[in-house]
Amino acid sequence: MTTLKPPFQTLNSQFKLQIPLKLSPKTSKILCSQNPNHQPPPKPITILSILRSIPDWADGIKERRMKQPRPLYKHSDWIRHRSSVRHLRHLLSSLNSRVILSLVPPVIAFTSVAAVVASYNTAVVWHLLPEVFPVLRASSLPYQLTAPALALLLVFRTEASYSRFEEGRKAWSKVVSGTNDFARQVMVSVEEEDCLVKTALLQYIMAFPVALKCHLVYESDIGRELQDLLEDDDLEILLGSNHHPRCLIQFISQSMKLLDLEETKRTLLESKVTCLHEGIGVCEQIVGIPIPLSYTRLTSRFLVLWHLTLPIILWDDCNWIVVPATFVSAASLFCIEEVGVLIEEPFQMLSLDELCIRVCENVQEAMTSEKKIQETLLMKKEAASRDPSLNGHPTSGNEQKTRSNSISPSSR
């Protein structure tokens, strides 16, 4: 049995000795730099790289946690979720929270500013600095006037993000229910004569939620996730397309053309394809259109300016307590803003992996039990045709004896 080589390998082997390879010194340097064994020189350590080390560390943790799969809740999870010891559990797990770890850079920065302001004012009060240096203090009245505005801004920002999260959840609920209903309609409408096309069509339907999930979630490996659902030639065509969910819809549409269906059934199945198109459109709009950036920038600037001037406002009343007060204020308010930013892109927060697995399991279970259900219903139909009084339910031997004994002698 001969193995087929890919076209580019065949062309390589044909022209390997025919085309002389001439490289300039500049090209050879570029190729050497692209060698995987060639390690690039280490980057020089600068002040900017030192300042960026903590934010890069926090962002790396947050992005890795965002890629972790999220399971759907079960009954045991809900019991644990509403447990009376949840507050202690949440407090002890604070250092493992990606929201809290992502706030390490701004909280450290504003707490350091508060410590610097407190140290400066202490030095001025103790006359460690010349008298020309004033104590940094201000009235708290401006903060009392702007505090409600900051609170409303954070509430509106979080509410807008949650509305996007809810919209994404509803869009995926429609995709999942539409996929299950589509598969059910195919199993009911397609006859056994088109068994091969029917099986292929159901595979494409099961693969659609997975392709849509990989299209929406960054750095998803669609080839690995679909290798057990699609044939190799179908998967090759799918990976070569620019839009994987729409390519699968083309597979579905072309498969439906090969089926011998009545016009009403075909129209019904086409409406299910339209629902899949609508799901793609809604999800792409959520991913491509964020909350207006001016709104996000305003919230961020307001929080930064608030906490930069907070130690000066609180100095007269708190003195060195401004340091823990700034820490608590920055950790709480920036945490609210961070949650709003995280749920603004909902598909990273939803349990899409588990939903796709459930769709595949439901369709495969329906395909497996289809013949058994048909055989059971045919047996009931045959029994009902033999004895209409049974209402389609076959009776056991004891029930038949009871029915025969209950017949009156006159009827005999």
TrEMBL record:
Residues 382-412 are annotated as: Disordered. Residues 392-412 have a biased composition (Polar residues). InterPro entries: VCCN1/2, YneE/VCCN1/2-like. It is found in: Membrane. One of its GO terms (biological process) is regulation of photosynthesis, light reaction. Its main location: membrane. Keywords: Ion transport, Membrane, Transmembrane, Transmembrane helix, Transport. The keyword Transport applies. GO terms for molecular function: voltage-gated chloride channel activity. It holds the Pfam family Bestrophin_2. It is a multi-pass membrane protein. One of its GO terms (cellular component) is thylakoid membrane. This is Bestrophin/UPF0187.
